[in-house]
Amino acid sequence: NVMTRPFNLPLAAALVDLGRPLLAWTHDLAWVNDRYLPFRRPGRPFSILHEAQPGVTYVAISAARQAEVCACLGLEAGAVAVVPNGIDPAGFLGLSPQTLDLAERGGFAGPGPLVLVPVRVTRRKRIELAIEAAAELRLRHPGLRLVVSGPLGAHDAGNLAYADELRTLTSRLGLDESVRFLHHLAGPGDDHPVPDRVMAELYRMADCVLLPSESEGFGLPLLEAALARAPVVCAALPVLREVGEDAPYTFATAAGPGAVATAVAAALDGRAARFRRRVSEQYGWRSVLLRTEAVIGAARGG
Known about the structure:
42% of the residues lie in helices and 11% in strands. With 302 residues, the chain is an alpha/beta fold.
């Protein structure tokens, strides 16, 4: 705002007089704001507030401000880039270093959407339905990550064989980069790498929570997802309807992966879910810094 607000006009004039390439990142324009009428005076340095200065590349914080900059300074829209404010999603969500490390090692730290399956690896949870649904969803969401957060079920020796079947299915469907089992990240003799605090943070990261179980006695993940404000997709089990009422996106208990994918797609297409993803993708610092670097490069002549 140095070039478009009247708080330090001597500095603005001095910067222009340097004759070096200058970026003027513009959040506000005093010249179009009646609160600053006393500064609408003829001659320099006041003219800096409404006349495009030589050697200065103007950058607007939003498309709305871009239009005002162009109208005020007499510039073409193509001459004024838009670089918005940024936000650190991980910092805002309060993600711990442990969770961020888990996301990096698990391959789901980047753009999503992230579908969290917060269940143990046991046949009753029907994780194969989630994997097969992910194969369909990936056609629409190439960056989709399906994360199964739970350990192997402790009460059935057959769960080892089930885990192998799930790995085989994942590979057969070409989803090795899209499906993640967090119990794989534990070293020999290590505890499961998802303690309660990290689990809460995974809920906050999730764009959607998926529960494909064929039966449940209660459905605690519905409550956890609600507190994290994550939409839930689940089978239409009576107990899940009891606990979740009309909040979850449901599919018939006997339905196949197509119905699961349809329900997850509906959850991901909700207004809040779409806005959340757009914020992370367009306004996360990674994206904002890339746009900033492009503007700097153009101002320096490439």
